[in-house]
Prior knowledge:
Layout: E1 3-6, H1 13-30, H2 47-52, E2 67-74, E3 79-87, H3 93-98, E4 101-105, H4 114-128, E5 133-139, H5 143-151, E6 155-162, E7 165-173, E8 178-180, E9 184-188, H6 194-201, E10 235-242, E11 248-257, E12 262-269, H7 278-294, E13 298-304, H8 308-316, E14 320-328, E15 335-344
Parallel strand pairs: 12-13
Antiparallel strand pairs: 1-2, 2-3, 3-4, 5-7, 6-7, 8-9, 9-10, 10-11, 11-12, 13-15, 14-15
Helix pairs in contact: 4-5
Amino acid sequence: MSLKLVKLTPEYKQQLIEMIEEWSSDIQVNHTDHSPWAIFRNDCHDFDYYLENLECKEETEDGKVPDSVFFCLDTDRNIFVGAVDIRHYLKGDLCFTGGHIGDGIRPSERRKGYGTRMVGLALEECRKMGLNKVLMVCDSGNTASEKTITANGGVFEMDLEENGKVEKRYWITLNDEIVETERLVLRRLMAADYKAMAAWDMDERVYKYLLGNVCKTPEDPLCWLPKKDPNSSINILMIAEEKSDGHAVGIYALNHDVENDVWSVSYTNRYDDWGKGYTTEGMRGLIDHAVKVYGAHSFEGECAKENPGSARVMEKLGMVYDHDSTYAKNDGSRTFESVVYKMHI
């Protein structure tokens, strides 16, 4: 078995047409799957148009993101056995049940182990793109896809229902993005962390000055948490865990306003860990990480005037008072007079 992923070029026109014709016939006769959808979007017989429109070059208003389509070539037989579509990043519903990789094997080549090999090759392409974690999703009951994903290191996260269908989410870790301080380990926040988040999400004391409101059940964050891309280079959400016992301390975050090139600082700790210096320690580690990895250099934070503890955190981080302002809770239930701190590195 000698396989490699190739980009479509005119030299592969015949291989493409043969595979698509076989595959399309199977879809019509047996009502089988047409994943990856990108290779069926246009008529392959109009090859020039097909080639030009195979990939999405930039983000579109209807939710498409840039992608790369590869065809799996059996070099011994010089035929295409399948294809993969790799999304460069996830956004919105793609984070929910779309995933980074859409893949499929042509009908006559299934159950020969090609799927597992092809996904493995696709993961190498994901690594070249700089992805640390790859989301793969399949329909519940699709055992072939489940086996392909798990054979490539996929770890089951949870089932999610969309439009009446239950889909299984798996994450494949290519690189662990870890920030370590003296007492804490910070890692990207994942949907499976919703249970740990209940330690602060359901505490009115913690939410007094936050934009949102306290959660009523531990599952409440699942309406938004799965839609956060853990590879995002502009929205860095990290959960902090205490080294000594592994308990979740809180969430530390940086969000990049690209237009103004400023990173906003935010943090949430469970109430029992207030006053222990975790926030300053964790945020300092995250800021240093963002400077080294993402080239961050300007930071901004805001807190209510009646929340001096948060102001002290920003001062300890080296931020200085810039101006007064106001902010309101998301539901408009309360407005706070605030102070804004800034720092330039």
